[in-house]
Amino acid sequence: MMSKPPKYTVLRGATYHFRMRCPERYRAYYPRDFISESLRTDSYKEAEILALGVKQAWLDELKARTSRRESPASIDSFKALRKVAKGAEISLMTADQLAKEPLEEILKRVSNMHTTDPKAESALFAAALGGFELPKTTILEAANEMSNYRPRDVVSKNLRQSKGWANRYKRAANTFIEVISEKPVIDITSADARSYEKFWQKRVDDEGLTSDYAKKHLGYLRSIVIEFYKSIDVEEYVNPFSMLKGIERPNREKHAEDSEKLEFTPKWIMETLLDQTRIQNLNQQARDILIICAETGCRQTEIYDIPASAIFLDTPVPYFNIRFEEKKMMLVRSRIDHRSDKSPSSELP
C-alpha cells in the first residue's frame, strides 16, 4: 500500500510538489486558490523537510506583498521584505546600493529573478533588485522608540528614571521639529543638521546656555539616527549629525575658573543637620536623603533611586552601594549612624 504524501505535498509522477491553499487574508495579493511548486525530489523524507521550509518562505512572501501594497514605507513592510531576502539568502540592497555592485552581481540577480518571477510580482523580486523603500519613520517616532532600541539602558531603571531617560530624546526630536521640520530619519540632510547646530550655537552665544548642554542635544539626535538604522539592520548610511564641526565654547566658558562644589561649613552643618529646626518640615525620608548627600556628595536622585538591595543595615557599620553606569563602577561606603532602627520607615525606596 502506497504511503500518504507528507503534509503540504502531492506526488506527481515520481516528483513531490509543494501545495498549499492560499490563506484568505492574502487572497487580494495572490490570484490563485492554491500555491504550488516543485520540490525537485523523489525522496519522501526530503520532501517532508523541504515542504515546511517552502511553506514558511511563502508565508513570508505573502506577508511582505501585503505590507508593501498597504503600507510600502512602513517599518513592518521593510522588516517583512528583509525576512524574505534572508530566507532567499540574498543581501537586501536599495537600488542605489545595487547600482554600485559589480556588473556580474547585478546580472546574476536579474537572471535569477527572470527565471523565478518573470512577471516581477513577488516581494522577493523587489528585495533582489532594490524595488523597495526604507521606512519613513520620522525623527520623533524614532525618538519614541529609543527605549525599545536600547532596552539594556533602561532595564535597571525605575519608572521615573526610565521616563527621564526617554524624554531627553523626545525633547531633542521636538526641538528639531520646531527648528527644521518633522522629517523621516532617512530624509534628514547634512544641511538640516548644520542648521540645527547653528540654532544651538546661537542660543549658547546669545542666551547663556552652556556649550555642553547644546552638545548633548546634538548627541541625542545622533544617537537616534544610529539606533534607527541599527533597528532595521542597515549598516551603510550617512548620519548627518556625525559630520558637524561642533559647538564652539563661548569666551565666558574659556575664561571661567574651574569650579568645584563648596563643602558645607561647620556652621551650616550644626544649624541645619544637627539642630534640624530648618528642615523640620521635611519628612524623615527627605531628611535622611539630605544628610547622606551632605556627607557623601551624592546627588539627591542617586540616593532617592537607590534600590533596597543596595542598602546594608545589618552590619557593624551600615553602608550602601552606589553603582554608576557608563561602563565603570564605583563603590561608595558611607556611615549612616543616625539610623538606629530597622523599621520600614527608615529604609530608602
Main beta sheet strand tally, sense and closure = 3 strands, antiparallel
Shape: elongated
Fraction of residues in helices?
Answer: 40-55%
| Spatial ordering of strands, largest sheet | 1-2-3
Mean pLDDT: 83
Structural class: mainly alpha
Q: Uncertain segments of ≥5 residues (pLDDT<50)?
A: 325-349
What is the number of beta strands? 5
Distance between the termini: 73 Å
Number of separate helices: 15
Write down the secondary-structure element order.
EEEHHHHHHHHHHHHHHHEE
What percent of residues are in strands? 5-15%
**Gyration radius, in Å:** 31 Å
Walk me through this protein's architecture.
There is one protein chain. This protein has 349 residues and is mainly alpha-helical. Helices cover 49% and strands 6% of the residues. It has helices at 44-70, 75-87, 95-99, 103-116, 123-129, 139-144, 146-149, 151-154, 159-179, 190-207, 211-231, 251-254, 266-274, 284-296, 300-304; strands spanning 9-12, 15-21, 34-38, 311-312, 319-320. It has a 3-stranded antiparallel β-sheet, covered by helices on one side. It has a two-stranded antiparallel ribbon with strand order 4-5. It is elongated.
